[in-house]
Amino acid sequence: METFLVVAGLIFLLVVFMYNTLISKKNQVDTIYAGLDAVLKKRHDLLPNLVASVQEYMVHESITLEKITELRTKAMTHSLDSRETIALEKQLSSMLGNLMVAVENYPTLKANENFLHLQATLSEVEEQISAARRAYNQSVNDYNNAIEMFPTNFMAGFMHLERKEVFSIPERERSSVDVKNLFQK
After folding, report:
1. Which of 58, 59, 132, 167 could lock 36 by a disulfide, CB 3.0 to 4.6 Å apart?
2. How many CB atoms sit inside 10 A of residue 64's CB?
3. Do residues 140 and 164 touch, judged by C-beta distance below 8 A?
């Protein structure tokens, strides 16, 4: 009788251990998936806003430089009378002064800096996604092993646990992000 109780107690402990292990692995997969989902949402929210801000600055910088070039070209023509030349030079000086003040006060407000920031952010977000995918796939692998290996496969069958899919990358996403297309939207 005593041997029967010891064996029954060991079997009960084994069942509890297997149940808790399976639940722990299932919850780990769900938690890591939530982290991956958050990073993917960050990419979807962040990229269009970064591209839009770079585009806006490019337009601002382009308009300013085009206006200065136009004024300079006009100023170099010799068909202007003295009053027109003075007015044009005042306008050109004002535009150049504003451009210099803007560059001195906001040295980081250059399209080049914005592109570098965009590039660094793209790289950082992609690295975060890659790390989250690896963690998710590893947890799915552990979970799938647990529900398919003996003896936990019997317990998983009773609990109706099913295999989870790893996060694989669709073929179209294996290519680099086409930032040029993002700028054309």
Report:
1. 132
2. 15
3. yes
3-state helix, strand, coil in the chain (%, to 5): 85, 0, 15
Q: What are 76-127's pLDDT values in tens digits?
A: 776 777 778 777 777 777 777 766 666 665 555 556 677 777 778 878 888 8
- The answer to whether 86 touches 136, Cβ cutoff 8 Å, is no
Instruction: Give ∠ CA 54-56-57 in degrees, rounded to 5.
Output: 65
pLDDT 10s digits, 120-167: 887 888 888 889 989 999 999 999 999 999 999 999 999 999 999 988
Do 57 and 161 touch, CB atoms closer than 8 A?
Answer: no
* Residues in CB range of 160: below 8 A, 6 or more apart: none
Largest CA distance in the chain: 119
- Residue whose pair of structure tokens reads 């910088």 in the numeric block: 61
